[in-house]
Write a structure and sequence with these properties.
Layout lengths: L1 H15 L1 H22 L2 H6 L8 H26 L3 H29 L3 H26 L2 H27 L9 H33 L7 H8 L2 H24 L3 H38 L7 H26 L3 H63 L1
Length: about 400
């Protein structure tokens, strides 16, 4: 799924050119933000509902509601922004493309909860490969991004409907959706803090793209998205050692073994620093030539922008470490407060910097936004740990 967005951007850029790719990138970013509404962070919540507080039928009803809300928000966004017809149609099409993924998250959670994670994973893999293949072949034959997205969405719907229905009948007993209002309300309030944090996180990650869209350098949107791609490398490499550390951190926090807990956090942040330096060093040498070969776009003189974006990605990954630390500490309200605050200030910062310095301004704003987030997270962590240590010593 992570690879799909990268491959599709390459295909759109090479087949249709940078101008269409820029329009596609913005529409995809909008669809990605709206996707969080469709998912509403219900996947993990449903999977980990070991006490079966809510039934599978009630979660299904909630999923239908959240996906309907996603589509309504997509239509409202298009009308509110008064987008040109082609951009509006492409945004709605990509919203539907991602809506299928959002709805399929329900079946992923359903199968995983019933001990069939392999079935869920196979579904995600197949629909990602199928939709990518259909979209690229449609682009090659018709050179129309909108038509290609529509056909790929239709392919996903057909595959998911057939596969999920077959596997549900085989492994799970599932009735009709239960739209009992009190239970839907209970699911909603249980998920709301997690959803708000996820929505703000997605919005913040895409804010520079929206700022570019409203600036005089909108034609360079595709170039920015290409330069942004290597930033994912830092985050993906960090996840390799961050994910396995979460259970260890949880054990240290419950023990409590605070010295080991703090030492592990320092090691994680040091790992982020090492990974960031390595990726920045490699990108400084071969980054631009490699991107030019892959995307077929002239990126001469864009090395500084690429390196600055990678610095921002390092700060984003360091912030992700603190995000998980606060979840381990069961201080979700801190996470929500930080994300909401940064979400409020990120667009003005990005708009001012993009208007002043173009693409470099977008890179600077990316660093500034995640620098602010990291600083607030770090300060909150220090304050909280000081309070915990003082309390423990008092005891």
């Amino acid at each position: 799924m992570a690879l799909q967005s990268f491959v599709l951007l390459i295909a759109v850029t090479r087949i249709c050119g940078t101008e269409i790719a820029g329009t596609y990138s913005v529409a995809f970013a909008v669809a990605q933000v709206l996707w969080t509404i469709g998912v509403f962070e219900a996947t993990t919540f449903f999977t980990t509902d070991a006490a079966n507080r809510f039934s599978a039928e009630q979660y299904l009803a909630f999923k239908i509601c959240s996906c309907s809300l996603m589509l309504i928000c997509g239509l409202a966004y298009v009308l509110f922004r008064s987008l040109p017809p082609y951009s509006a149609h492409l945004t709605i099409a990509l919203c539907c493309f991602k809506l299928v993924d959002a709805f399929n998250e329900y079946f992923f959670a359903l199968f995983q909860k019933n001990g069939k994670l392999d079935v869920a994973g196979f579904s995600v893999f197949c629909q990602a490969v199928l939709s990518t293949a259909v979209l690229i072949v449609s682009l090659v034959l018709g050179r129309d991004v909108l038509l290609a997205v529509v056909l790929a969405t239709a392919g996903k719907i057909i595959f998911n409907s057939a596969y999920n229905l077959m596997m549900t009948r085989r492994y799970v007993s599932l009735g009709l959706p239960d739209f009992f209002l009190e239970d839907l309300s209970g699911i909603f309030w249980g998920l709301l803090p997690l959803f708000l944090a996820a929505f703000c996180s997605n919005y913040i990650a895409n804010i520079t793209k929206f700022a570019i869209e409203q600036s005089s350098v909108a034609s360079l949107q595709a170039v920015y998205n290409i330069l942004f791609m290597p930033s994912f490398a830092i985050n993906l490499l960090v996840l390799f050692f961050l994910r396995p550390s979460l259970t260890v951190l949880a054990e240290y926090w419950r023990a409590p073994a605070l010295s080991k807990f703090r030492h592990r956090i320092v090691k994680l942040l040091a790992g982020v620093l090492v990974v960031s330096i390595f990726v920045i060093f490699v990108a400084g040498i071969v980054g631009i030539p490699l991107l030019e070969i892959v995307f077929g776009v002239d990126l001469e003189g864009q090395t500084p922008c690429l390196l600055v974006l990678l610095v921002g990605s390092g700060l984003a990954s360091a912030s992700l470490v603190f995000y998980n630390v606060f979840i381990v500490m069961r201080r979700q309200i801190v996470v929500l407060a930080v994300y909401c605050f940064v979400a409020l200030i990120c667009f003005p910062i990005s708009k001012v910097m993009v208007d002043a310095w173009g693409l470099m301004g977008a890179a600077y704003s990316y660093v500034a936004v995640y620098g602010i987030m990291f600083s607030i997270f770090a300060a909150s962590y220090c304050i909280l740990m000081h309070s915990v240590l003082a309390h423990r010593s008092g005891e």
